[in-house]
Amino acid sequence: MADQEKTEEATQHRREQAREKGQIPKSQDLVSAVMLAVALGSLMFLGRDLVDFLGQLTRDELGTVPPLNPTDMWATNHTATAFWRLAMVMLPILAILFFAAVAINMMQSGVMFLPDKLGFDWNRVNPASGIQRMFSLTNLMKLIFGIGKVLIISIVAGVTLWFEMDTILGLSAMSTMEVARYLLDTSLWTSMKIAAALVILAILDYGYQVWKAEQDMMMTKEEVREEIKTMQGDPQIVAKRRQVARQLAMSRMANDIPTADVVVTNPTELAIALKYDPFEMSAPVVVAKGAGTVAQRIRRLALENHIPVVERKELARALYKEAEIGHPVPAERYAAVAEVLRYVYELQGKQMPTMADLEKADRERGRAA
Question: Which backbone phi and psi does 131 adopt, to 5 degrees?
Answer without folding.
Answer: -65, -40
